[in-house]
């Protein structure tokens, strides 16, 4: 009993932590099948993706019974477009992506992809459809090739290199003495935040998902690295339904839709221009950021709604 309890308890803690960071969930789900909080419905069918439309319909959600986190959250991401979510820390932004990936089920309302309630489709097909570029990419103590191919074991060498090229990390890898065979991670080469995000982008490109979640890093990269990553993301978001959990306004000015979340409620929505014209919470955030930056009309800097 004791012997069984300790590892399961340990795995439970690990599961919660990883779930929280949205990192490496696929691997974890394979390891921890028995720890899922949500289960496939007995008659679950594979998700059939046509355009990749994402709908949150009047979603209420709480992690714990006593504290509601999302209130009547209702929005649609049209196929192939980008929706960005902004709001102060703790407003519920990352919770939206956890729900879309079905780490948890909603309390009321529903989430649908191309009209199919995500509770009625197999989790395997759901998670195959959604790619995540997480805040912090976990690298395994293995080769850089393994780390890129991870999530898509069938990938050929050529496909791995093509993904690395598209993520602008191929030249860096080639410059290493052992190239793609270089060991990375805790006990190998340490990659910078930007390099790690590029590995995550290459991984996602190999996965080629219809729906993309980009959970922007809270800690800013230096501005050149940031701009490069943004340009790449724009590339991979093209033609994919994309949800950006934004911590900086720089990432979202050209999103098709921006949602402003406040204490779990959508208080404003529209394009950047519409929200500026509205002169509400978003416009205030923008103005504050501009004042701090002293660079008119140039997006950037940390998001601050307080
Ligand atoms: P940030 O910008 O700081 O990343 P966020 O807007 O993404 O914040 P969420 O991570 O969605 O915020 O969290 C929303 C609320 O839910 C917070 O008050 C947080 O404390 C709470 N919360 C998050 N995860 C859990 C959990 N696993 N159990 C209980 N409460 C949680």
TrEMBL record:
Zinc in keyword set: no
- Major place of residence: membrane
Subcellular location as annotated: Cell membrane
Q: Does the keyword Cell membrane apply?
A: yes
- Pinpoint the ABC transporter domain residues: 54-288
Q: Provide the protein name.
A: Metal ABC transporter permease
Q: Which keywords belong to this entry?
A: ATP-binding, Cell membrane, Membrane, Nucleotide-binding, Transmembrane, Transmembrane helix, Transport
- Membrane-spanning parts: 1-15
Species whose genome carries this gene:
Noviherbaspirillum aridicola
């Amino acid at each position: 009993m004791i012997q069984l309890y300790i590892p399961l308890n340990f795995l439970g803690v690990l599961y919660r932590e990883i779930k929280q960071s949205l990192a490496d969930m696929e691997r974890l789900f394979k390891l921890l099948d028995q720890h899922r909080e949500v289960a496939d419905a007995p008659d679950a069918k594979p998700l059939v993706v046509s355009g990749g439309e994402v709908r949150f319909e009047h979603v209420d959600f709480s992690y714990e019974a006593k504290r509601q986190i999302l209130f009547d959250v209702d929005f649609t991401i049209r196929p192939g477009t980008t929706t960005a979510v902004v709001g102060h820390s703790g407003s519920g932004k990352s919770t939206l992506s956890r729900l879309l990936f079905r780490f948890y089920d909603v309390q009321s309302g529903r989430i649908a992809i191309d009209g199919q309630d995500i509770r009625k489709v197999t989790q395997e097909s759901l998670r195959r459809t959604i790619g995540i570029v997480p805040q912090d990419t976990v690298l395994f103590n293995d080769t850089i090739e393994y780390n890129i191919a991870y999530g898509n074991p069938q990938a050929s060498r050529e496909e791995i290199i093509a993904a690395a090229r598209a993520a602008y990390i191929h030249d860096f890898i080639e410059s290493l003495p052992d190239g793609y065979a270089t060991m990375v991670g805790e006990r190998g080469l340490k990659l910078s935040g930007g390099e790690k995000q590029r590995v995550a982008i290459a991984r996602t490109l190999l996965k080629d998902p219809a729906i993309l979640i980009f959970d922007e890093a809270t800690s800013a990269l230096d501005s050149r690295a940031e701009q490069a990553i943004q340009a790449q993301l724009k590339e991979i978001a093209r033609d994919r339904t994309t949800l950006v959990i934004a911590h900086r306004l720089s990432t979202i000015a050209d999103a098709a839709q921006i949602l402003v979340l406040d204490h779990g409620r959508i208080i404003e929505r529209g394009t950047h221009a519409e929200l500026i014209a509205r002169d509400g919470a978003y416009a205030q955030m923008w103005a504050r950021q501009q004042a701090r930056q002293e660079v008119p009309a140039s997006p950037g800097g940390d998001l601050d709604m307080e």
